[in-house]
Write a structure and sequence with these properties.
Length: 172
């Protein structure tokens, strides 16, 4: 019920509405600040994950190419992508990559970080997709990594190595 002050004005009701709007405005401002602070925190997390994923790729390529025996890959691979007989299969696959020869240089990896389910994989959470060019004695190669984030760091969830050198290998 609206009461009127002497003289016909509705001052108490107007001040009640004014106080309600001030309270709503403060709530909206507080909510906006929470969203802004949360967004800044998320951006900082994504930047940190981006740097760590790029560093992981920069370190993984020389480790895998050091002797091409597959051990460095197996140490970094997510267990969910490895077949039961990976200890026998992976060295054979990496022996084929050995035609690239010794590593000369790895370019700065480029890629992106995502959250959710990576398309075509069972991985849920933070993931990364990175590419890096590497120069070997026999020629260039392009590495494509799909990484899955676990509590202890990044794991390889997918790897593709492409090179024109592979097509030039003579088969017996």
């Amino acid at each position: 019920m609206i009461s009127s002050a002497p003289g016909g004005s509705a001052a108490p009701a107007a001040s009640q509405w004014s106080a309600t709007f001030v309270w709503l405005g403060r709530c909206l401002l507080g909510l906006m600040l929470i969203v802004i602070i949360g967004s800044l925190g998320l951006l900082a997390t994504v930047k940190r994950l981006n740097q760590s994923a790029a560093a992981f790729v920069e370190e993984a390529i020389p480790a895998m190419a050091a002797d091409w025996d597959g051990r460095a890959f197996l140490e970094r691979a997510h267990p969910g992508i490895l077949p039961p007989d990976a200890q026998q299969i992976v060295p054979k696959v990496f022996a084929q990559y050995a035609v690239l020869g010794p590593l000369d240089r790895v370019a700065q990896p480029t890629g992106r970080i995502g959250y959710g389910a990576y398309p075509g994989t069972p991985f849920l959470g933070f993931w990364a997709e990175y590419r890096a060019r590497a120069d070997f004695r026999a020629g260039p190669a392009q590495f494509r990594f799909v990484l899955a984030r676990e509590a202890d760091g990044w794991r390889i969830a997918g790897l593709d190595i492409a090179s024109p050198v592979f097509g030039a290998v003579q088969r017996p």
